[in-house]
Write the structure tokens for this entry.
Amino acid sequence: MKVGVVTFPGSLDDADARRAAAVAGAEAVALWHADADLHGVDAVVLPGGFSYGDYLRAGAISRFAPVMETIIKKAGEGLPVLGICNGFQVLCESHLLPGALIKNSLRKFVCRDQVLRIENNTTAWTSDYDANHEITIVLKNQDGSFVADEATLDRLEGEGRVVARYVDNPNGSYRDIAGITNERGNVVGLMPHPEHAVETLTGPTTDGLGFFTSVLKAVVAS
Amino acid sequence: MARVVVDVMLKPEILDPQGKAVHGAFGRLGFDGVADVRQGKRFEITLDGEATEERVAEIRKAADTLLSNSVIEDFTLHVEADQ
């Protein structure tokens, strides 16, 4: 079971994401933005950070990296993909997920332990959580406000595609949305950082580990 | 050489925290009578040769796919007269 983690120029959390995958029991594989080969990985994490300095829009330039061409194609075939923070922004820019992420409504960089409610525990990345389970993981972002038009928001809620909601909305995200999934449930975007909450030595909890253990089961099951 | 200018603005219904911050500074500096400030982006694209219809269409495509995100932004495009 191999989990690939992409490094873009400006990625920050790729090492933590690889570590989280390893803590969960997977073999972590470093993927490079300029290399379109996924090296046989069973799942992919797009990590947090400021790829390409967030120039133009967060995720806008990364979306056209060679590795993304392959990931977009494979995601359509069912490859589990988790985009965390900047990775979520890349998934929205890639149109693998609807909506967009804009500057926090409070005009501040937010960094804190954040309580989320897991609302969809049927995705490839959330099956190890109980439905409506509340978890506390790290939130740190500048462009974290999830926006979409009303019809898209209604569709996401109607189809149960809101994966996680903020219990106490920190950034102005519409309808308190912290994470969403695609129709198939293999692609998940999440603004807070589960990879920073897998060990008590360095994180507020180990609540984030479930994302990584869930995908191991999803891959074995497929 | 011809220049194509693309202006990108957040859609009116999308909150613009940067514009709000600038608006706040207007007030602090005594620039009164300003109802709202919205911040956008301007791209000046210099072509190698003339701005033919085909090439402007290409830039329009770039504006639509790369320079703006249609979920949150609108863009306008115009060809600047020769300097």
